[in-house]
């Protein structure tokens, strides 16, 4: 049984007050809070275990290297990936997608070649492809969602043409919570010989992930949304695609030998990891992923589905609340506006005075907000430690906002 009181006790920040009110943290889509076990592991690493990795033969270096490299296997288990050597460490999903853009796509795409994207994408899965559009003449082909913000996999597949070289798609929208059937997209793309990159920043947080079941070529995650530290992340890359990639960054660890006239590169995944990494950040992410696996991602998904259903039921009673996106099976992410002149930033400020943390703005998804016809929204995004009582508090605060701005 999912013991929400015990889970909440694992997160020390949830016991604090903001503006004299108990904190209600509903900004998990931007960054999640950290359990004590992650905080303790990072503190211990800095206090008692820190040294540079892969560099020395002394005790601390070996200890740090062992703990750091063990995270590769933890990430592989979390993603259901078959081989830890297919895991490349990054600072987060943004770096992971840029790695693919620079190391895999840029050397092989020519002017007129196409990348298929959905309008649901976060800027991190848009801007790296714009680089190729600007610099190499690559064409971006966009797939629009349905009115309820569902993304039809067949529409994505049908957009693939003879010049399509990559499909890049999110598993879950960070604005509407839409859950995308990435496995269906991968099956269709694979039948046409086109690789697929999946942005797992949101999807991996809210439900179990199985790389073999998805069938993608690239899958990126970011640690700070997975209850780990900022500056941590990873991308799974199939060995076939790794073999096609050139190095992205140059420096220590990604080389075997360097001379005045030549350089020999290391084997993957080290080939794509240059310089001193975020050692403690990655150790912290590993502990966070183990924490999630101990809870059970199926249990997390069930808890958040109950939160989603409770929020939907409560929001339906607010006929002046405009919620963006009603895709079936969506995640517990809600972007909304209020009827009238209240700006999202004003709403967020009022909610903050009541101790409720939400996001306000474009959520790094400007094409989607343009498609929705809104300039900005408030976003309440729920996590594994949120409760139905907190949703009720949010509704009370929104009713206050409605009266205030009416």
CATH H-level superfamily title of the largest domain: Type I PLP-dependent aspartate aminotransferase-like (Major domain)
Structural class: alpha/beta
Strand order of the largest sheet: 4-10-9-8-7-5-6
> What is the overall silhouette?
globular
What integer value in Å does the Rg equal? 22 Å
How many helical elements?
A: 15
Uncertain spans: none
CATH architecture of the largest domain: 3-Layer(aba) Sandwich
Mean pLDDT: 97
Describe the structure.
- There is one protein chain.
- With 406 residues, the protein is α/β, with parallel strands linked by helices.
- The chain folds into two domains: 4-28 and 297-405, Aspartate Aminotransferase, domain 1, CATH 3.90.1150; 40-294, Aspartate Aminotransferase, domain 2, CATH 3.40.640.
- It is 41% helix and 17% strand.
- The protein has 15 helices and 17 strands.
- The protein has helices at residues 4-9, 36-49, 59-79, 93-108, 127-136, 153-159, 182-191, 203-206, 211-214, 239-242, 279-295, 297-315, 344-353, 366-372, 388-405; strands at residues 17-18, 21-22, 24-25, 87-90, 114-118, 139-143, 164-170, 196-199, 218-222, 233-237, 255-258, 263-265, 321-324, 333-338, 356-357, 359-361, 377-381.
- A seven-stranded mixed beta sheet has the order 4-10-9-8-7-5-6, with helices on both faces. The chain has a four-stranded antiparallel beta sheet with strand order 13-14-17-16, with helices on one face.
- Helix 3 crosses helix 11 (279-295) and helix 4 (93-108) runs parallel beside helix 5.
């Amino acid at each position: 049984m999912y013991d929400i009181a015990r889970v909440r006790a694992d997160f020390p920040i949830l016991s604090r007050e903001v503006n004299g009110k108990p904190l209600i943290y509903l900004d998990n889509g931007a960054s999640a809070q950290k359990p004590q076990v992650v905080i303790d592991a990072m503190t211990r690493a800095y206090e008692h275990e820190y040294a540079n990795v892969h560099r020395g033969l002394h005790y601390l270096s070996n200890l740090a290297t062992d703990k750091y490299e063990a995270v590769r296997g933890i990430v592989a288990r979390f993603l259901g990936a078959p081989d830890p050597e297919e895991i490349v460490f990054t600072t987060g999903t943004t770096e992971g997608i840029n790695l693919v853009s620079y190391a895999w796509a840029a050397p092989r795409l020519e002017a007129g070649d196409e990348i298929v994207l959905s309008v649901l994408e976060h800027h991190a899965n848009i801007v790296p492809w714009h680089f190729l559009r600007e610099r190499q003449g690559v064409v971006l082909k966009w797939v629009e969602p349905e009115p309820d913000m569902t993304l039809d996999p067949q529409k994505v597949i049908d957009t693939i043409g003879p010049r399509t070289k990559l499909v890049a798609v999110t598993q879950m929208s960070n604005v509407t919570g839409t859950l995308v059937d990435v496995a269906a997209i991968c099956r269709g793309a694979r039948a046409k010989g086109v690789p697929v990159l999946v942005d797992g920043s949101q999807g991996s947080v809210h439900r179990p992930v199985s790389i073999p079941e998805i069938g993608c070529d690239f899958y990126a995650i970011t640690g700070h949304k997975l209850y780990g530290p900022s500056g941590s992340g990873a991308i799974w890359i199939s060995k076939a695609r790794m073999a096609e990639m050139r190095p992205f960054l140059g420096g220590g660890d990604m080389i075997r030998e360097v001379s005045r006239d030549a350089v020999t590169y290391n084997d993957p995944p080290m080939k794509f990891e240059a310089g001193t990494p975020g050692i403690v950040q990655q150790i912290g992410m590993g502990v966070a992923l183990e924490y999630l696996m101990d809870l059970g991602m199926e249990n997390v998904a069930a808890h958040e589905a109950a939160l989603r259903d409770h929020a939907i039921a409560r929001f339906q009673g607010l006929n002046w609340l405009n919620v963006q996106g009603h895709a079936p099976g969506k995640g517990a992410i809600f972007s909304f506006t209020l009827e009238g002149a209240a700006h999202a930033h004003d709403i967020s400020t009022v909610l903050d005075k009541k101790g409720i943390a939400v996001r306000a703005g474009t959520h790094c998804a400007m094409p989607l907000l343009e498609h929705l016809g809104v300039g900005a929204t408030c976003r309440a995004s729920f996590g594994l430690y949120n409760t139905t009582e907190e949703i009720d508090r949010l509704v009370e605060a929104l009713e206050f906002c409605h009266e205030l701005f009416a």
